[in-house]
Amino acid sequence: MLVVCCFLLLSAALPQTALAKISAFACEPEWASLLSELGGKEVSVYQATSPKQDPHRVEARPSLVARMRSADIVVCSGSDLEIGWLPVLLQSAGNSKVQPGQPGHFMASEFVERIDVPEKVDRSMGDVHPYGNPHVHLDPRNLAVIADALSQRLATIDPDRAAVYADRNAAFQTRWSESIKRWEREASGLKGLKIVTYHRDSAYLGNWLGMTLTITIEPKPGIPPSANHLAKLLKELDAEPADLIIRMAYNEPKAPAWLHDRTGIPLAELPYTVGGTKQAKDLFTLFDDTISRLRQATGR
Fold first, then answer.
1. Which domain does 288 fall in, by range?
2. What pLDDT, in 10s, does the model give residues 231-249?
3. How far is 154 from 73, CA to CA, in rounded Å?
């Protein structure tokens, strides 16, 4: 009893900031990893989705509502990637700190230039993202910009530790800049490749490395390919061959494999995010493994 009383008195005597951590809700693994890089032990990170889970389609489970209810910051891709589940969580949680317009609401894609912004949108086009392609993390130059913005946001939420976040971001940026230079050297032989991709989740990766997306296996975003559509793609590839087929870890595997088997075009299975392969254990090894798999598949 005496020990418990002493513990309670000691806890009460400590400043609240010495005990509290920022509670962060990360929609996808890449943002959980970035939060850990920038926050270290000062940020407690909850990852809402698994690496091989399609981030477009997530069930707004009660357990996710409970996590969001206690969050100080929500970090997601944005640009409507999570449109099917994030608004439900925000409304159900009723947490004023993480609503749109508040410091605790951080949509990563809003801080970088987005590609594939459609001139118009209607339901006949499939699951088109009206604000542009949300898969911004696959260009590491975007991640450098987002890291700066997220570090500043953490400091806004937790000003007592602003210097910690600034120092960790500076260290991250130094390592990241050096890594980008190395990745670009290693991937120089990939420039000019014509690639087939299941979904346009490879667009930022292609832009960064100078690869051209020629065919998307989905007939429309979010619509699985039919047998007739695959037969059509086969004819297109026979007329104008591609150099590589890319399948991300969360993509449906059968259609890319079918095209690979019938065309002989090399197939690269990429992690997409942290944890998508055994090798992709953090943001740095995500790109290490991505470049390695692209080079291995193409022999370049």
1. 187-298
2. 999 999 999 999 999 999 9
3. 8
